[in-house]
Every structure is written in C-alpha cells, then in structure tokens.
# Entry
Amino acid sequence: MADFVKGYDDLDDVGAAVTVFGSARLKEEHPAYKKATEVSKKLADSGYSVITGGSFGIMEAANRGAKESSYAESIGLNIDLPFEEKGNAYLDRELKFDYFFVRKVMLVRYSLAYIIMPGGFGTLDELFEVLTLIQTKKSSPGAVILVGKEYWSKLFEFMEVMEEYGTISKKDMDLITIVDKSDEVVKIVDRSLNRQIDAIQEMGLEESNYGMMLKETQDRRGLEIDIIDAQ
# Structure
C-alpha cells in the first residue's frame, strides 16, 4: 500500500507523458539504443515527459534523450534490488518501488502512449499486458507504438495468424502501429493526446489537474504546429 501511495503522490504532477519499454541488455553502440535516444529527445522537445523503468540499455537511452531536452522530464521508476544500487545517470526524477507489480501499474497509469523498442521476454510481457488492458477497456486507449519494423515484423505476422484463428480481432490489431521514424512516433503521440483529452472531457474531468496539464500540452503543440506550417 505504501508503494502505491508513494507512486500516486510523487507522479501526480507529471502531465503529458509516454512510457518507453525495451531491453536492458543493449549497449550504447547498438542502433536500437541510438534510436531510443533520438525518439525520446524528439518526444521531450515536443513537451512529453519520458518514463522508463530507470535501468540501463534502452531505458537509459530513452532517459538520456529526454534529459538532453529542456522541455520535459526524464523519469525513472526503479525497483529496489540487492544487486542494483541506483538507476541510470540521466534521470530528472527517480522513484524506487519494493514491488514489481506496483511499478508496472505506475509505468502504465501516467502514459498517453507506449513506445516499444526492441526487447526480450520482459518487454514482450509489458507489451502484451498493455494491449490486454486496452483491449479489455481497463486502461485508456493510449497508442501502442512498436519502433523498428525489421525487429517487430515477424511478431506482427504471428499476430495476423492469431487474427486468422479468431483468437484476436481486427480491432485488436488496430491497437498497434509499427514505425521506423521518430517523427512518426511524435505524430501518433499527438493523436493519442487528443484522444485522451476527448475522453477526459466526456467524463467531465477537463478541470482536473491532469486534464488541465494535458490541455496545456495540446495548446503548446498546436502553437508549434501552426508555426511550422506557417514557415
């Protein structure tokens, strides 16, 4: 209970944010590490805080990209383990949890979209849990973005087999987008922000702290887009 209270209290002011999942094993020289840094930098420059598990590999890369920006926060939600003393070196804000399941709730709870970089079993676990929560309407319909067509295409093909068998539907497949370019990620997150604000307005919560923070980001993004279009 203390873990949940700490998470909700400390993350209540995050505002518009995305969560990045990916392998802790990939090193700085790996192309996926560099891509995660690039994607996160563009997202943070657009006003979206970046949340990760706070560890190394892709998580470090994502926090590193966000840290390079002055427009949003780099956030790490770490776990207290006897063999891991601290998170990566690129965190503006770090929270430590005792329980993995509480940490996972927090990684999902405060995000408009989920960026899935190349990863292993843990990343697949996070991907399918997010999809299940959205599919069953236990979570808001945030965008699920797989970055790296070469890495994810075979998994997507298997999901098409699942659709043919009838174990998932075409509507479920539409929850996922596979992209390669950072600009595509930002555009999808922008659309997810708009959908979230629409949902908040339908619930009558636009005057809540979270609703107002999202609206501020939407207004700022709209201004930036107008300036770009004008040029």
Residues 2-188 form a domain with the Rossmann fold fold (CATH 3.40.50.450). The longest helix spans residues 209-230. The chain has nine helices and seven strands.
